[in-house]
What we know:
The protein is built from seven helices and seven strands; from the N terminus they run αβαβββαβααβαβα. It is α/β, with parallel strands linked by helices. The mean pLDDT is 87.
Amino acid sequence: MSSDAAIHVRDLKNKKAIPAKIIIIGDPAVGKTSLIKKYVKIPIDSEYLPTVGAHISKQPVKLLLGKDIVNVALLIWDIAGQDVFRILHKVYYNGAKGIILVFDLTKPQTLTNITRWQNEAIGFLGRSGKIPMILVGNKSDLKSEIKISKEEVTKIKELIHIPDYFETSALTGTNVTEMFYTIAERVYSNEKH
Ligand code: G3D
Ligand code: MG
């Protein structure tokens, strides 16, 4: 049997997708909704929870782990509206298996605020080490407007203990799939243990 066939057999046995709630947080206008729109293949308004103020989108991901394929269904929660920094409803964080923290590479204050967003999440979810987090610097296409250096990002990464960092563009799509794939992979590995 070829290795391709081996992958296929395991895939059939493992048809049921594992659901994983992912939340995306960060200051208004950093591009959270745009990143989801770029990534998710079904319409973003698939579900809306007015009491929580959140949109939920679903996207299946096929994780390639050695010769195995694992189907994960990402349920991506997005803050609805453009409110200023605020404490989100507990329900928004409840049951989250992974967190995407987004800032805007052209707006240094949005990077500074990442620690506040992380603190809020930890406040609701408990110990940060338990839940995979990923740091995202968005709008990488606006090259001449970038006001954040690699050193500044490194400093924050160390401060908040997040090793995974992606520079994305929701406009061109650069690194968008890679970023969502990585959080799915981290969540899957974390849940296994
Ligand atoms: P939010 O959900 O974090 O609040 P949005 O942010 O996704 O609504 O994006 C805010 C604005 O930034 C939008 O512009 C959107 O088009 C723009 N934007 C998002 N991501 C990128 C990116 O990667 N590159 C560029 N150049 N622009 C981006 P408008 O003008 O519609 O408000
Ligand atoms: Mg939005």
